[in-house]
Description:
By secondary structure, the chain is of the alpha/beta class. It folds into two domains: 172 residues, Rossmann fold (3-Layer(aba) Sandwich); 183 residues, Dehydroquinate synthase-like - alpha domain (Dehydroquinate synthase-like, alpha domain, Up-down Bundle). The chain contains 14 helices and eleven strands. Helix 5 runs parallel beside helix 9 and helix 10 crosses helix 11.
Amino acid sequence: MRKIKVDLGKRSYDIVIGKSILDKLAAYLRKLNIGEDAYIITNTFLKDKYGAGLLKVLEAGGFSCRFKVVPDSEKSKSLENAGRVIKDLAQFDQRRKVFIIAFGGGVVGDLAGFVASVYKRGIPYVQVPTTLLAQVDSAIGGKTAIDLDLGKNLVGAFYQPRMVFSEIDFLKSLDRRQVASGMAEVIKYAIIKDSDLFCYLENKHENISSLKPAALERIIGVCSGIKAVIAGRDEKETLGLRTILNFGHTFGHAIESACGYKGYNHGEAVGLGMIAASDLSYRLGFIDKKLVLRIENLIKLYRLPVKLKGASMQRIINSFYHDKKFVGKQNRLVLVRGIAKPVVVRGIALDLIKEAIGRIA
């Protein structure tokens, strides 16, 4: 078992990473002293597969529990669904000391964190991520959000969990596509912050893709550590440090929105976004063509798509300029000058952006 601290002063919390550690969850929750009644937001698959085991652990620790099942898709992050969850939570909360457990992947984590942030002006919640993408990225750092038709994650708040509890055994239930989606975020961390991790991903592809525990613990630990340091230093992205975590995401979010959140999951869209961002870095003279191909080959190695289908250039551009990180119409993108050498660039010409999107079209 490994623990990594997200240092936020009095709001600091631990990321707990390990294999076969679920039986320790109740003890960790007791130490947090955040409540007696767990409101568990999850999806049908996870409730059916792991719900009984989770319930047994929590009830043995003296907690009462209620499961709230939401759809296993980006549609869960709508205003309408968030309202339904909040109403159900309010009914459960009568005369209770309630806290929320986000038991799922990035969608569940975003929704649960958002609900926790607004219900009674904020109640405690913990992340128990069950996907690789959530364990290495989305469960950490306190970004919570729901979507609007105009774009992804447009309504949300920075609201930190009290703990992130990453049980590696949950990853055994993932299909190939879910593993690949998580690897997109791992590749992102390697590109922006860790050349050793980049080489490890190139050389240990078989161990990682076959979900060898030692390989998983290594990549989850490295990525969690990077995210913890960045989130601790620049929690609300006011210093520019946290911005580098958006590498590939501005293009990726535009692709997701332009496709109506169908066809590509988040990791797949980010993978395409990283190729576009790498190509744009090349067009601006930051990197050579060889590195663009090396990044694309790594993305392809983990069976992520490298060509875009199902969205027009105009729809992607329209979604691109609804990105919440832009100031007016001035775009802001994370690009690279090399592995572990990110750079934030503003006001890039539209023609260059179109050419970069054309690289994946």
